[in-house]
Design a protein that fits this description.
Distance between the termini: 27 Å
CATH superfamily of the largest domain: 2,3-Dihydroxybiphenyl 1,2-Dioxygenase, domain 1
Structural class: alpha/beta
Number of domains: 2
CATH architecture of the largest domain: Roll
Shape: globular
Helix content: 10-25%
Oligomer: single chain
Radius of gyration: 15 Å
Strand content: 25-35%
CATH class of the largest domain: Alpha Beta
Protein name: VOC family protein
Pfam family, one: Glyoxalase
Largest sheet: 4 strands, mixed
Length: about 120
């Protein structure tokens, strides 16, 4: 069996608001609140489990998406007036990148986690 990531905990200030943000922007499914987590299904094998915490270090989460998904997610980012940019140090230029003959964009969630969507895998030599 191939190993796959099943879930990860995403610390946040408001787990319900965070789960709803990912549902609205990415189209993920907010399943339910389970114990101390707001569970969001990313795909058939991965969930993001949002958990409230007073202080935490912002993290980076990158999602590979299809060209059509990229267009839809970028449109939702723009409709919700979320700043975005072509790189992790430039999240407010309202531009995308075209690395590795694909498209990519960076933006932040309400908890300042750095989010990235890409259509092509990075080529690591």
């Amino acid at each position: 069996m191939e190993i796959s990531l099943n879930h990860t905990i995403v610390y946040c200030h408001d787990m319900i608001a965070s789960a709803r943000f990912y549902e609205k922007i990415f189209g993920f499914e907010f399943l339910k609140v389970w114990e101390n987590f707001a569970v969001v299904k990313v795909n058939k094998t991965l969930s993001l489990d949002f958990r409230d915490k007073g202080t935490f270090t912002a993290q980076h989460y990158a999602f590979k998406v299809s060209e059509q998904q990229f267009d839809k997610i970028l449109a939702r980012i723009q409709q919700n007036n979320i700043a975005f940019g072509p790189g992790p140090e430039n999240t407010s230029a309202n531009e995308i990148n075209h690395h590795y003959e694909g498209r990519g964009v960076y933006f932040k969630d309400p908890n300042q986690h750095l989010l990235e969507i890409i259509t092509t895998d990075y080529i690591l030599d």
